[in-house]
């Protein structure tokens, strides 16, 4: 395909791809159908970031890029996770507006126009909120817990749902990609940069094919990124817990001394002593692990652990010519 002018691109759509070889042709078809009524058919790019998918996603992306000039494919050398794959795409966007969405078509492409309308009204970022979520119950519960934690750790507005389907201005993207740490959490980066954020409601569609790639382990990993990468509140919590336990221990000590003086016949309590030791030991181990998590992430950052590594692209990065 021929060379596209970066200056002509108004809209960039970034999609992390993992085990979606069967979905990608339909995704491209629906995205194109969604942007044509917006008058952007010749002024948008679709960046498909292959996160080392074990299926045929990369060959499919290469084939689609040969057929469509607006498609730009990026393949990472190993699996870095959804947020890091998005960061890889954000480092290569050219549009004035950037939309991020999943590859499973649960995010309806025809909602892209609503996201762009919100940005053109002056907002920096626009998130989506689902009317009727089609996720599994355990994932919905985990999402609510994540939302509750984000409200407290990141000072997130209570009415803001941190959806993976969102849009933002190019200026915000430029600030976000300055972060070069290995543990990227996009929503935390967005909230660090701006609070000019709005929300639009959309329908949540069933997954087009296959099953969700998110597991409980990945959700816990995402929670740790948020908790230890963008807030020191967990460390403050350890301080508060230590103070409260010290105060409680002093009160209990005074209580037992007085009780012994009043009732000398009371035997010494072995069970209560063991229970107290186990409780305090558990709390100490937990908070030592928490401190270790912070130190470990700092160590990896100082040793320049890669946020992502691009293996190949569907275009020549020197000449910006699609191959």
Structure commentary:
With 323 residues, the protein is of the alpha/beta class. It folds into two domains: 6-211 and 305-322, Spore Coat Polysaccharide Biosynthesis Protein SpsA, Chain A (Alpha-Beta Complex); 233-302. It is built from ten helices and ten strands. It has an eight-stranded mixed β-sheet with strand order 7-5-6-4-1-2-3-8, sandwiched between helices. A two-stranded antiparallel sheet has the order 9-10. β9 (315-316) and β10 form a beta hairpin. α9 packs antiparallel against α10 (270-302). The protein is elongated and about 90 Å long. 32% of the residues are buried. The mean pLDDT is 81.
The gist of it:
It comes from Desulfosudis oleivorans (strain DSM 6200 / JCM 39069 / Hxd3) (Desulfococcus oleovorans). The chain is α/β, with parallel strands linked by helices and 323 residues long.
Helix content: 40-55%
User: Structural class per helix/strand content?
Assistant: alpha/beta
**Class of the largest domain, according to the CATH hierarchy?**
Alpha Beta
Mean pLDDT: 81
Question: Which helices and strands appear, and what pairs or packs with what?
Answer:
Layout: E1 11-17, H1 24-35, E2 44-50, H2 57-67, E3 71-76, H3 82-90, E4 97-100, H4 112-120, E5 125-130, H5 137-153, E6 166-169, H6 170-176, H7 186-193, E7 197-202, H8 216-229, H9 233-262, H10 270-302, E8 310-313, E9 315-316, E10 321-322
Parallel strand pairs: 1-2, 1-4, 2-3, 5-7
Antiparallel strand pairs: 3-8, 4-6, 5-6, 9-10
